[in-house]
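Pipeline run #58 for the internal structure catalog. This entry was flagged by the ingest filter as a single-chain record with no existing model, so it goes straight to prediction. Upstream metadata was stripped on purpose; only the residue string is passed forward. Reviewer on rotation: M.T. Logging verbosity set to normal.
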Amino acid sequence: LSTWSKERSMKWLVLLGLVAFSECIVKIPLRRVKTMRKTLSGKNTLNNFLKEHPYRLSHISFRGSNLTTLPLRNIRDMLYVGNITIGTPPQEFQVVFDTGSSDLWVPSDFCTSPACSTHVRFRHFQSSTFRPTTKTFRIIYGSGRMKGVVAHDTVRIGNLVSTDQPFGLSMAEYGLESRRFDGILGLNYPNLSCSGAIPIFDKLKNQGAISDPVFAFYLSKDKREGSVVMFGGVDHRYYKGELNWVPLIRAGDWIVHVDRITMKREVIACSDGCAALVDTGTSLIQGPGRVIDNIHKLIGATPRGSKHYVSCSVVNTLPSIIFTINGINYPVPAPAYILKDSRGYCYTTFKEQRVRRSTESWLLGDVFLRLYFSVFDRGNDRIGLAPAV
């Protein structure tokens, strides 16, 4: 296709107005909590590592391997974002790489919602490789919603190129005005796609661009730079010891079985086992309301507004919460689960799961993943975890 004219664009827009939008509810809410991290004891270790292994704000491919590493930016520990491009010539977008969803979408040039007006919008008429469709969809998040249309174009993640990649263009967004990113790149399984489009990881895998069907995350503590997502392999410099592999409860979602959850050597949750989604797209640890309330009582947290606060002077004396997964203990110490708000007050990162389920379930977000390097293995339907450097 040649570069689109605005006349053709308007005809496409009119045609879309005649099409009904299908609806999809994403079971995990998007959360963006502006926080400032408390300095951790391991900061010097991280700083030394970053000095020895500096990363540019562009992809890095290691010689002799098919590993592609893309830097992510830590925005005040509320989320991690990286850059991709769409179209020919390429247009750059800042996206969240999200294991809790499966769709790639960015704002459309047609979107006039306030949420779109402050972010980069895709100008399809400037791309010579753009291909439209009339397939529409909606996504409802816990904190907002969007509706969009599926289109096709060339998408680049570092040196990985997916041609004729289906992706979503948002036509309207609601409740997402405060977000600090342009769009979302879903890395969950294709069966969870709200738009019905093949996820970009699957298309890259099918095209042979990724020989080993794995991707991995290292999420830095405190530092704006240093975080990475890597595709096609694992860089062992980012973790200590050996990876512990955890099978998924079922192929088709990044959910693992948790044996139990303990604090002060007592089981506080999952006494008979439970499920947990390992989600890079949210910043918190979420669980059943009754358990979260009990945790707050155990650590002496008091509610204030939508958060629970503790005295900053007692943070180092508070107990760790330990998730036992596949027989291995994964402690989350208080300096990791307590954050500071903009006024310097300390609050917890435990939140009630808003989605009601028949069985006990948890969401392990960035609070957990900052401590543990994570590998998502699509080839074997498993997740690898190891202490991060």
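catalog note: The chain has seven helices and 27 strands.
catalog note: Residues 23-64 have pLDDT under 50 and may be disordered.
status: ready for reviewer M.T.
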